[in-house]
Amino acid sequence: MSSVMTEPRTIEQNQPDSLIEPSSLRSPLKIPRVSDKCARTFQTLYDVWQDLAASSGQMVPRKSDLRHTQLKSILPHIMITERLNKESIQYRLVGTHIVNFFGADFTGRKVDVCNYLGSENHNKLLLSVHENVASFPCGVMMERSVCCGHGKEAIFQGLCLPLADNDGTVRYYLSALDTDDPVGRSADLMAPRNRFDLSSMDFRRVHYVDLGAGIPARAYV
To answer: Fewer CB in a 10 Å sphere around the end CB: N or C, the chain?
Structure first.
């Protein structure tokens, strides 16, 4: 018996940009409607990524060139995942802020994206995003929502940038997750069982970041 895919809800994509001012001469991120708190986290990550790319002379820096000390100020917000194949990832590093936010440490866990995270539409879009980040390559800002145990909805944002293995193949995703949502911040204080229903996770916005190779015309394919 075949299942019928429901149409995804409307996802905002690449609206007119507002600059996130850089703290140096590096290029600023161009992402609309990001709070100052999240903007600082994302710009710091982007600065580090740009420095790695410039020093390596490659469009996509290698994961082996990254040092945790370079991310010291935002390390609790950092997540590194490895793309095992088109449908599976493995969490290589999960920062303490992310662990506290979700109430679990995913470090080392292998995930079949199709069957593990969020709603069916969320998973389909996430697979598309992973493919686009690796194949263009490009960056992406994702804004997502998830239902809390007390029935409220928390909103969080993440910036994801590609990293290559030593052969130059894009195989890793370097991400920073943050929230300026009161419900999301209060989730740190909840008991783990009351935090989130991960099956409710869904996208609100997807905004691709051009790293020099262009960006997809559509987020959902």
So the answer is: N
